[in-house]
Predict the 3D structure of the following.
Amino acid sequence: MLHHLSFAVTDLARSAAFYDAALTPLGYVRVWDDDEAVGYGHAGGGDKFAIKLRSEVIVPGEGFHIAFSAPTHDAIDAFHAAALAHGGEDNGGTGFHPEYGDTYYAAFIIDPDGYRIEAALHKNT
């Protein structure tokens, strides 16, 4: 349904370092960048997620978050660790979340600008 999504950020270098580290374990890389924005997606493809430098950022409240698809549980754990090491804040840990289904494995983070992000894998049984 969605083609792409972007977040406004106040410090492009800080946010790019955060997303470079956090998204790499999930298989996403920078697919383009310039002085005002960075786009992420699969190598050789277009961006599916971008960060854009803005002087003011208004972060949506608790009802909004973005969940990135993850290939494995280990990738989710690595996403969580990398995000914490690069300025993210834990927002619910990493592991199984049966409140979303018996096979729902995810990690929840708040990024340096305050956006709620997640890496998730839900295998249907």
